[in-house]
Amino acid sequence: MSEENSVPNDSPVQRYLDQKVEHLFSGLSVASHSQSLKLERQAEGIQKSHELDFYSTTKFKILLSNTASALRKDDTATALKSIDNA
After folding, report:
1. Per-residue pLDDT for 63 more than 80?
2. How does pLDDT run across 25-52, given as a tens digit for each residue?
3. Nearest to 80 by CA among 58, 61, 60, 71
4. In 10 A of CB 85, how many CB atoms?
5. CB 76, CB 82: distance < 8 Å
6. CB 79, CB 70: distance < 8 Å
7. Per-position b or e across 36-64, b if 16+ CB within 10 A of its CB
8. Cβ atoms of 69 and 53 closer than 8 Å
9. Distances (CA, A) of 27 to 20, 33, 54, 70, 81
10. Using alpha carbons only, how large is the chain's radius of gyration in Å?
11. Distance between CA atoms of 27 and 44, rounded to whole angstroms?
């Protein structure tokens, strides 16, 4: 009975089904790869954002230090100039 219902390996129906299964799995693989690339790009963007935040924070700390140094010397003109140039 199972031989009556089985499809020969070289039949057009079997080749069609094999091709459909292959396309399904390759499509899943492509979707998975695409999702991985998307996550990698997001991670790179977050990393760059953190680098920019660090750079901005560092610039601010330098500005603050220079301004404080100028104010300690009672040099308000230099302090204001450094703030204006920021």
Report:
1. yes
2. 776 666 677 788 888 888 888 888 877 7
3. 71
4. 8
5. no
6. yes
7. eeeeeeeeeeeeeeeeeeeeeeeeeeeee
8. no
9. 10, 10, 41, 64, 61
10. 33
11. 26
